[in-house]
Amino acid sequence: MLRICVSLTILARSLVTLSAQAPEIQGRESQTLALTDVISLVLNRNLSLERSKVQMELRENDVQFEEADTQPNLTGSLGGTLRYSGTGREPVWNAGSGTESLNGSLNSSLVLYNGGEREAALNQARASLEVSIKEHDRSRQFVLFQSIFRYLEAILRLKEIEIQTEELASRTENL
After folding, report:
1. Taking phi first (over 0 means left), then psi (-120 to 50 degrees means alpha), and beta for anything else, what does residue 115 get?
2. DSSP assignment, residue 113?
3. Nearest by Cα to 69 from 111, 115, 21
4. Are 69 and 119 in contact (CB under 8 A)?
5. Which of 7, 14, 132, 147 could form a disulfide with 42 if both were Cys (CB 3.0 to 4.6 A apart)?
6. How far apart are the first and last CA of the chain?
7. How far is the C-alpha of 123 from the C-alpha of 125, rounded, in Å?
8. Which pLDDT belongs to residue 33?
9. For residue range 113-130, what is the model confidence (pLDDT) as tens digits?
């Protein structure tokens, strides 16, 4: 009996404390969320999930870079000159001639064998991408588990408060 009275006293004090809290808590509206709403919010607003998505995109870029690096290289250049030479003095020139030239080059290269360095780099980039994907999945599962656990725990606490409130009401009625 003493145990019940102590728990009822603690419950009453906590209710009084909650009702006397700061105005920013009192002014807020309570909102009931369904489990699907909680899951949607967690998946869309979680910073660690956003960070792992960015890591995954970076690894995808690494794979694309390594795949492009195995292709042949092609470089080109184009240049030209224009010259005018003459005899005489300034401002009067007796005779003059002009020359024009244009040159260009196009180079291509393909590494035939480099000791497997490119293949190793490509395999490493692919493995890093796979690790990033699995880490993202693991983070997503962990965040979902934590949010569902906390949601169910909050429901349990609310039911406990509801039961204790009903017990308190029935006890005060009996007194």
Report:
1. left
2. -
3. 111
4. no
5. 147
6. 14
7. 5
8. 79
9. 777 888 888 899 999 999
Please check whether residue 96 is in contact with residue 87, taking contact to mean a CB–CB distance below 8 angstroms.
yes
Asked if residue 61 lies in contact with residue 83, where contact means CB atoms within 8 angstroms, the answer is no
pTM of the model: 0.54
- The amino acid present at 46, given as its one-letter code, is N
* Residue type at 156 in one-letter notation: L
Q: Residue for token digits 């009453």? A: 12
Beta strands in the chain (DSSP E): 73-89, 92-109
Q: Tell me the pLDDT of the chain averaged across its residues.
A: 79
pLDDT value at position 9? 52
Burial profile 93-111: b = 16 or more Cβ within 10 angstroms, e = fewer: eeeeeeeeeeeeeeeeeee
Instruction: Decide if pLDDT at 10 tops 70.
Output: no
**φ, ψ for residue 40, nearest 5 deg:** -60, -45
